[in-house]
Design goal:
- It is built from five helices and six strands, in the order αβαβαββαβαβ.
- Strands 3-1-2-5-4-6 form a six-stranded antiparallel β-sheet.
Length: 194
């Protein structure tokens, strides 16, 4: 990539969520409320696929059209995609909700999506994907402690969202950062976390 292209490189996030009820999120919410102390104050739990694209990318409209055209990113018949391309754009997270990003160790890169992009546009980009869990708590809940308690699975009664042996969790403090999946950005080690 030449120097001018590097200067125009940016990171865009695509937040992909099912249009209907997500059975995995419903099940996780029921388990959290029934079996985990920290889950008793959990009022909502949503699962959103987060796709980050890094490189020289087109403007927002053309980018959305490209994402919509390929099943490598999402299925517009059953999912909705919110693209956050400008620094001021907010992801589909309400005020007061907490977000935990979970990625598989070493497997967040989407090689097939990168090849499709290169074939369609002639440019190389990096595509990463993870699962963003969006948690809403009852008023008065100490959200930071509850999120930490719900994130890492340590025993049958502790944790829900991330298996620290095969996954990495990153907890956003405030709005989710961009980029979020680059090495070291908002990363929290799983095994020793409490």
């Amino acid at each position: 990539m030449n120097e001018a292209a590097l200067m125009n490189a940016r990171t865009v996030q695509a937040w992909v969520e099912l249009k209907g009820e997500d059975p995995e999120a419903v099940s996780a919410l029921e388990v959290a409320r029934a079996r985990l102390v920290a889950g008793r104050e959990l009022s909502t739990l949503r699962r959103v696929r987060l796709i980050e694209l890094q490189g020289v990318l087109p403007e927002a409209g053309a980018l959305s059209a490209l994402l919509d055209r390929s099943t490598r990113f999402y299925n517009p018949n059953k999912e909705r995609c919110t693209v956050c391309s400008d620094p001021g754009e907010q992801p589909p997270v309400d005020a007061g909700e907490e977000v935990v990003l979970v990625t598989e160790r070493g497997a967040e890169r989407r090689a097939a999506a990168e090849r499709w992009w290169h074939h369609e546009t002639g440019t190389h980009i990096t595509v990463r994907e993870g699962v963003a869990w969006v948690l809403g708590f009852a008023p008065g809940t100490e959200a930071a402690a509850a999120v930490a308690a719900l994130t890492w699975v340590r025993a049958r009664e502790h944790g829900l969202l991330c298996n620290p042996h095969s996954q990495v969790a990153r907890i956003a403090s405030g709005a989710p950062p961009r980029p979020w999946m680059s090495d070291g950005v908002g990363q929290v080690a799983g095994k020793g976390a409490s």
